[in-house]
Amino acid sequence: MKKVGVAILGLGVVGGGTYKILTEHRDKYIKTHGVDITVESVLELRKDRALALGVEESRIASNISEICSNPEVDIVIEVMGGVEPAKSYVLAALNAGKSVVTSNKELYCKYGYELEQAAKHNHVGLFFEATCVGGVPVIRALLDNLQGNKITSIIGIINGTTNYILTKMTDDGKSYAEVLKEAQSLGYAEADPTSDVEGYDAAYKLSILSSICFNKKIPFADIYREGITNISEDDIAYGKKLGYVIKLLAIGKDAEKGVEVRVHPSFVRATHPLASVSDSYNAVYITGDCVEDVMLYGRGAGALPTGSAIVGDVIYCATHTQHRYSTFPNTEKAASSTKFITNFESAYYLRLLAADRAGELSKVTSVLGRYGISVAKVVQDIDEKNRNGEVNLILVTHSTKESNVKKAVAAIGKDISDTRVVSVIRVLV
Amino acid sequence: MKKVGVAILGLGVVGGGTYKILTEHRDKYIKTHGVDITVESVLELRKDRALALGVEESRIASNISEICSNPEVDIVIEVMGGVEPAKSYVLAALNAGKSVVTSNKELYCKYGYELEQAAKHNHVGLFFEATCVGGVPVIRALLDNLQGNKITSIIGIINGTTNYILTKMTDDGKSYAEVLKEAQSLGYAEADPTSDVEGYDAAYKLSILSSICFNKKIPFADIYREGITNISEDDIAYGKKLGYVIKLLAIGKDAEKGVEVRVHPSFVRATHPLASVSDSYNAVYITGDCVEDVMLYGRGAGALPTGSAIVGDVIYCATHTQHRYSTFPNTEKAASSTKFITNFESAYYLRLLAADRAGELSKVTSVLGRYGISVAKVVQDIDEKNRNGEVNLILVTHSTKESNVKKAVAAIGKDISDTRVVSVIRVLV
């Protein structure tokens, strides 16, 4: 019987879930995989957490060195989150000849190149399936199933908190602020929700996923990022009338003319498979030149779903001797040959507040036309006036360049008195 | 540069697609995986097919021995379909020390245990991702991502032809016979469609998938199988009114009391993620004790999607030295400890033709009650009579045992004059 010892760094939500899975399924893995995986050590400052999970006191380490020098530990699971001290601990483990399994998206996104270098140097494994989309098997699918494809696009709903908030806003017609407060009280959003609601978390994951998809380094710094804090319940309701659902999308595209990587709210047609991904469910929609469209869907977060991904990596690591590293030069920055497109093309939803006067629509479309923007859908209801006597004018454009829309929005504000653009939301085409 | 030679047995739709992917992406794989994969040989009786694809005449083998004795061939891709001669050829290749990648679900389902034995004996790889659900990365997800879970259920739409037919019947209100004919003329259904429409193809795949899911051998012979040939456009229309969509489902469940494996048409709630899997798209919906629900969706067939799965296996095989075999005793038959449940529980949709008389509904529900069956939904419209003056009476039951429904249906025919059950369709709960 092969014996493999693991250490867990951090016994928070995911660390606790991982501990439970490993201990409760120990006999199963002996039977199915012929390997006895035991938790030899944990590192957790809050000793009570460890004891509450049933960890023997003798297995609670007081510092990372104890774990690195413990010959019973073969694999170190890092589930602390954040860059430091996680980074120093992971490097120490790798340099001590331990393989590492991590769920830390920020760390892997920002310093994956450095961690991988250390793993290569020490001939150990570095596994990171759990960094992206919880229990959904996306990273290994890209590495070991779809690797024969030229992947042209990946579109993901890859942050559970924002998807929960947007779903609630849609279903209950409540404001962002109201739903955020509810989500915080339920533990679905952090006290400081910035990383989720401003799109940082999604951008970390998009950096990791698109680097694998496109076989080139896509650093976090090159990803356009816009959060959901300005989305209003009114726009969600108007979008619904037009057959759209709002989602925070992470979009990566790789084409002849360059790479496009962006995280922002977007309207999605209600018939698109991504439209029905609700609440804290996540999904990635991948297009390859051979496989066509593939969608992988499931729980993007949570103790046991993320623990499932971690334990999948642990069992793989425990039963395989060969290590595998990136299929692209994994450097800090993008290769100089990688061209990023920032003035990307999209369809746009524009909501304007206009004076209730004949000819306003014509003025607006004329300004849009000046910038080469043509209109696909219009909704105007003069019976729905706000307290200032203004009416909502909703336009959805055909696909156009971002820069044209910015110029047109500025020109409308300047050239048309009493009419202004209040919302600009991209629409997935 | 590592050089790896492959041979392709069969240049039909999938073989041709695989050849194209490998030759057109050769430079890409050199760059991303540091391996030069070349098609060294093909076995195809119709020489014109090979020549039309651009295969050099010198690389067209005239028999399997030529391939087995060719030292340039490391991996044999079997995409012939059917049991013989595919089985003999695969065994010959394995015994000649070649790794094998196959898309042959019937062969792998029926003789996987024998092929694996030969692979183990010869220390070579046996890869079969392409046997199930085309380009959708399901097998490796089960083996290398979800393997830490106790999988409790897998529900799949895993046959493209039947899903295409049922979708067309639903969208166009046409009969099975009519849509089948159309599908045949478009090449979406075979001239002899038995394997697809009677559920054999789905059952082969369910045997392979559920064996992996449940870590025990689930032979084809133990799978309950029922095709779609008796599904009528009327039932589809009535189901729609009740909020259901019809699908040919492959269902595997593993619980304390035993294993349940069955392929049959089933109504699915329109809000279930599987309901929106239309046309020739396929999906598997997997539930594990840690990961919760995961759905994997994409093209379940076709030259390039299936080729994508094959090439994924080829690249994996070409870049990994360690072979991996089943995580259960892979024998011909099920283990004697495996208990199969044949009298399974389900909700049921029943359509009856009843005399337009007061009290008929009450008689029917009274018979159902006698067998412990309670009714969840009823639809009856006395204004919709058929030419015999009969009315349709639609009942949906709560979850009950299959045997109770069979007895109740027989009793209704015997005990209630002028009223008979015309359709019985299971409903996914």
Task: Write a structural description.
The structure is a homodimer of 429-residue chains. Chain A has 429 residues and is an alpha/beta fold. Chain A has three domains: 2-134, NAD(P)-binding Rossmann-like Domain (Rossmann fold, 3-Layer(aba) Sandwich); 139-299, Dihydrodipicolinate Reductase, domain 2 (2-Layer Sandwich), CATH 3.30.360; 345-427, Alpha-Beta Plaits. Helix content of chain A is 37%, strand content 28%. The first copy, chain A, is built from 15 helices and 17 strands. Chain A has helices spanning 13-24, 26-33, 47-53, 64-68, 86-95, 105-121, 139-144, 160-172, 176-186, 194-197, 200-214, 233-241, 303-319, 360-370, 402-415; strands spanning 2-9, 35-43, 60-61, 75-78, 99-102, 126-127, 151-157, 224-225, 244-255, 258-269, 281-288, 292-299, 345-355, 375-385, 390-397, 400-401, 420-427. In chain A, the strands form two sheets. In chain A, strands 7, 8, 9, 10, 11, 12, 13, 14, 15, 16 and 17 form an eleven-stranded mixed sheet that branches. A six-stranded parallel sheet of chain A has the order 3-2-1-4-5-6, with helices on both faces. In chain A, β5 (99-102), α6 (105-121) and β6 (126-127) form a beta-alpha-beta unit. The longest helix of chain A has 17 residues, at 105-121. The radius of gyration of chain A is 24 Å and the shape is elongated. Chains A and B meet through α2, α7, β12 and α13 of A and α2, α7, β12 and α13 of B.
